[in-house]
Amino acid sequence: MVGENNCNLNKLLELLTEEYNARTILTDTGSLLSNLLIKQGLVSEISLLIHPVIIGKKAYNMFAHLDAKLKLELVKKESFEKRYIWNLYRI
Fold this sequence. Notes:
three-stranded antiparallel beta sheet; 23% strand; Dihydrofolate Reductase, subunit A; 91 residues; alpha+beta
């Protein structure tokens, strides 16, 4: 609907807004889609769940494909089970 081989993310979000009256869209993504959305300026908030585990060399870099440094503003912070921390940031 919004691309044959590639998806026009901006057009896709416009369609969701127009056709379904969507005002908030949540994506639970890996690095590829999240980085594309951020690069195109389509993300207003980032929600991070922090687990207390050190991975080391095999760590997954969620934002590896971003070139620019983003400044984030902490909007909300909660802890769960005295282990996990959920941070909500505004870009």
